[in-house]
Design a protein that fits this description.
7 helices; 27% strand; alpha/beta; globular; 7 strands
């Protein structure tokens, strides 16, 4: 099933069928990427930058696979989802089977503790929604980004809290990569854990492209 020419609404409709975490794990900051945000990200990456079709794509902290599945639908050559959580990968596997996608592989690992030389420049594009690095996971977002930049040959697309933009810009300058904020999004975070008092919270999030040119 390859739908490179599908409309944004069609893509979002397909991604709404992707199963998400049954029992999300707080320690891993497991929040699903909403179908609308995932579709907007992928559609822009595909149509504006041409970084999906026929490309090898890595999805770091892939969870249940919405970004990989969307990329595969848009004609990616091959997608590799990396996640530490076996339960999330089981759901991802079921999702990809239900969509009859054969150009996806999954790797269970701790992406932040892998030796960078193993994966250096191993994929064309990295697309990810990393942990935001809140609570006990401080700095996790930057660890994901550093690994992604080591892996990618062309570009990295990632979501980061708008409140951390200056910090991300400083890191990008330190690492000598070009950073472009493509869009400012409102990330609707549903009440997922017991300590969440509100039904949902809007978080301001930057959709960023990092590149080496």
């Amino acid at each position: 099933m390859c739908l490179q020419d599908m409309k944004l609404k069609e893509l979002e409709g397909c991604l709404q069928q992707v199963d998400v975490f049954e029992s999300p794990k707080l320690l891993l900051e497991q929040y699903p990427t909403r179908p609308h945000i995932a579709a907007c990200m992928l559609y822009t990456i595909h149509n504006t930058f041409g970084d999906i079709e026929d490309k090898v794509i890595a999805d770091l902290g892939c969870g249940c696979g919405v970004l990989s599945i969307g990329a595969a639908m848009l004609g990616a050559g091959f997608c590799i989802g990396f996640d530490i959580d076996e339960d999330a990968l089981d759901t991802f596997r079921t999702n990809s089977e239900e969509f009859e996608l054969s150009n996806i592989d999954l790797v269970q690992c701790d992406i932040c503790s892998m030796a960078p030389t193993n994966l250096e420049k191993s994929v064309d594009t990295v697309i990810m929604n990393p942990p935001f690095g809140t609570k006990h996971n401080k700095g996790m977002d930057m660890k994901f980004l550093k690994t992604a930049l080591q892996m990618a040959r062309t570009s990295v697309y990632s979501l980061h809290k708008t409140s951390t933009r200056e910090h991300v810009q400083k890191k990008a300058a330190d690492w000598k990569v070009k950073m472009e904020v493509i869009a400012e999004l409102r990330y609707d975070l549903p009440a997922t854990y017991k300590f969440h008092k509100k039904k949902s919270v809007d978080i301001e999030v930057d959709f960023i492209r990092f590149s080496f040119d």
